[in-house]
C-alpha cells in the first residue's frame, strides 16, 4: 500500500498483522525486554519489515537500535523510517545516495480524540481539518494532518537533529485529480534548520493516502543526483 507514495530508490515493506517469523537481535530484544506484549510485537514485526527492505536493497540483515530521542539507527549508507499503528506496520529504506531522509507515518482513519487537533494545528490548518469530507473522497482530515506532522518530524529529526514542535511546520494538502483518497502535501518549516549535508532545510513535499481504514503519509527527500530526484 505505502509503496505508491514513494519515489524510485525507496524500498517499502509492510505487514497488516503480527509477523511470527520476525526475530530480534539481542540488542533489540533488550530494548523491549520489559515492554508489554503489544509493544514487543509491533517492535519485532516492524523490524522484520526493515530487514526485508534491507534485503530488497541488496544489504545483509542488521539490527535497528534506537539512538537519541529514539531515532532508528540504520546501517551505514542507509536512510529509513518506520511506523506502526493498530493493524499496520511498515518500514521504508533507501540508499543515502538516492534519498537523504525518509519519514513515514500511519494512523487509523478515525477522528482524533477531543482537544488533540487544537493542540497540533495552526489556525489555517484548523479550519481545513474541521471541514468534513464525505463520499468517495472520505478521509478524517484531522487525523491526516496529525499523521503528516508525525512524518515531518520523522524526516526532520534524523536530518537536522533538533526538536520540531507541531506549530513549527505549516501544512497544506491537495487531492489527486484521479484518486480522491490520495494526494500530496507541503510542509513549510517555520523555524528552518541545517541538514547533516550542510543544506538548509525549509520544508518537505509528501504524499498521502487513505485506504483499508488507515491514513498513511510519506516524505522522501531526494539526494541531489539520486534516483529519487524528480528531475532525474
Ligand atoms: C516520535 C514520534 C514522531 C513517533 O510517532 P508515533 O505516531 O507516535 O509512532 P509510530 O509508530 O508511527 O512511529 C514509531 C517509530 O518512529 C521512529 N522514531 C521514534 N523517534 C524518532 C525520531 N526522533 N526521529 C525519527 N524517527 C523516530 C521509530 O522508528 C519508532 O519505531 P520503534 O519505536 O519501533 O523504533 C512521536 O511519538 C512524537 O514524539 N511526536 C512529537 C514530535 C512531532 O511529531 N512534532 C511535529 C512536528 S510538525
Characterise the protein shown here:
It is a single chain. The chain is 25% helix and 34% strand. The chain is an alpha+beta fold and 232 residues long. It has one domain: 4'-phosphopantetheinyl transferase domain (Ribosomal Protein L22, Chain A, Alpha-Beta Complex). A hairpin with a 2-residue loop joins β9 (200-211) and β10. α4 packs across α5. The longest helix is centred in the N-terminal third of the chain and has 20 residues, at 37-56. It is globular. The model has no long low-confidence stretch (mean pLDDT 96). Coenzyme A binds at residues 43, 46, 66, 69-72, 82-84, 105, 149-150, 152-154, 157-158, 164-166, 168-169. This is 4'-phosphopantetheinyl transferase. Mg(2+) binds at residues 105-107.
What key phrases describe this protein's structure?
five-stranded antiparallel beta sheet, about 25% helix, Ribosomal Protein L22, Chain A, binds coenzyme A, about 230 residues
Amino acid at each position: 500500500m505505502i509503496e505508491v507514495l514513494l519515489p524510485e530508490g525507496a524500498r517499502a515493506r509492510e505487514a497488516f498483522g503480527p509477523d511470527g517469523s520476525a526475530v530480534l537481535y539481542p540488542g533489540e530484544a533488550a530494548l523491549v525486554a520489559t515492554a508489554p506484549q503489544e509493544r514487543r510485537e509491533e517492535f519485532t514485526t516492524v523490524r522484520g519489515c526493515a530487514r526485508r527492505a534491507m534485503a530488497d536493497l541488496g544489504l545483509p540483515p542488521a539490527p535497528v537500535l534506537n539512538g537519541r530521542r529514539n531515532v532508528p539507527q540504520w546501517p551505514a549508507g542507509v536512510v529509513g523510517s518506520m511506523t506502526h499503528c493498530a493493524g499496520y506496520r511498515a518500514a521504508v529504506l533507501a540508499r543515502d545516495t538516492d534519498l537523504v531522509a525518509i519519514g513515514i507515518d500511519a494512523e487509523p482513519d478515525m477522528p482524533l480524540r477531543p482537544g488533540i487537533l487544537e493542540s497540533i494545528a495552526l489556525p489555517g490548518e484548523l479550519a481545513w481539518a474541521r471541514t468534513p469530507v464525505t463520499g468517495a473522497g472520505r478521509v478524517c482530515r484531522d487525523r491526516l494532518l496529525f499523521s503528516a506532522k508525525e512524518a515531518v518530524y520523522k524526516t526532520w529529526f534524523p536530518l537536522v537533529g533538533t526538536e520540531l514542535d507541531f506549530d513549527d511546520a505549516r501544512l497544506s494538502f491537495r487531492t489527486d485529480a484521479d484518486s480522491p483518497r490520495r494526494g500530496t502535501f507541503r510542509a513549510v518549516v517555520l523555524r528552518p534548520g541545517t541538514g547533516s549535508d550542510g543544506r538548509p532545510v525549509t520544508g518537505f513535499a509528501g504524499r498521502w493516502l487513505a485506504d483499508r481504514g488507515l491514513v498513511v503519509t510519506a516524505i522522501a527527500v531526494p539526494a541531489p543526483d539520486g534516483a529519487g530526484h524528480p528531475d532525474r
